[in-house]
Amino acid sequence: EAQVTQNPRYLITVTGKKLTVTCSQNMNHEYMSWYRQDPGLGLRQIYYSMNVEVTDKGDVPEGYKVSRKEKRNFPLILESPSPNQTSLYFCASSLSIGLPLEQYFGPGTRLTVT
Amino acid sequence: AQSVTQLDSQVPVFEEAPVELRCNYSSSVSVYLFWYVQYPNQGLQLLLKYLSGSTLVKGINGFEAEFNKSQTSFHLRKPSVHISDTAEYFCAVRRENNDMRFGAGTRLTVKP
To answer: What is the spatial distance between Cα B10 and Cα B55, in angstroms, rounded to a whole number?
Structure first.
């Protein structure tokens, strides 16, 4: 089954404790992206990757890191989480060129930083 | 830079009534347009998309949307809603460089 998986689905942590949210897709997509969803703000892009070893900042990259060492994986790293990073996070993937153009989303990771 | 405006943050409607969720975008170049739905505690699922061709696009669950280039709009419609349509709906635009922007979302609540 074609899918995007994220782990963990729920995470409660404390300020300053490094964490990683994993994202994996099995559709051989070149393009992958991380979003955060906050009430009234919709989805805002954190980082994206056009292909292996190619990453770039989105609209809200501060406090986050990513890496793309393999095509299927795109982990999101919070080196020193802060309460303002409490949010719902989504990973998405798509082809870079050609059809279909839509992005496929993971189930989301709800992060709470206390 | 392009942006997406969903004109209503919340839309309450009674079951079996028609509904329209409005979306306007700003872009000086051609874009691809999407509507996604998010059911409670789930990820985003594609409802429909406009890439080119006919301006009226039909999607899943009886939804359709009309692309209006002159008004830069892509409103979502359904002639008769069900309780199960209660969800948050997101309009999104994507340029050829893969840059994708989402609206703030519209929460549709269908009441019995």
So the answer is: 26
Q: Which two tokens stand for residue B18?
A: 């028609």
- Residue A64 at interface with chain B, using a CB cutoff of 8 Å: no
Q: The tokens 């942590």 sit on which residue?
A: A13
Q: What is the pLDDT of residues A34-79, one digit of tens each?
A: 999 998 888 999 999 989 999 999 989 999 999 999 999 999 999 9
Any B CB within 8 A of A43 CB: yes
CB-CB under 8 Å, B43 with A106: yes
Strands annotated E in chain A: 4-7, 10-13, 19-25, 31-38, 42-51, 54-57, 65-66, 76-78, 87-94, 104-105, 109-113
CA distances from A100 to B32, B69, B93, B103 (A): 11, 22, 14, 21
B6, B23, B44, best to mutate vs chain A, most A CBs in 10 Å: B44
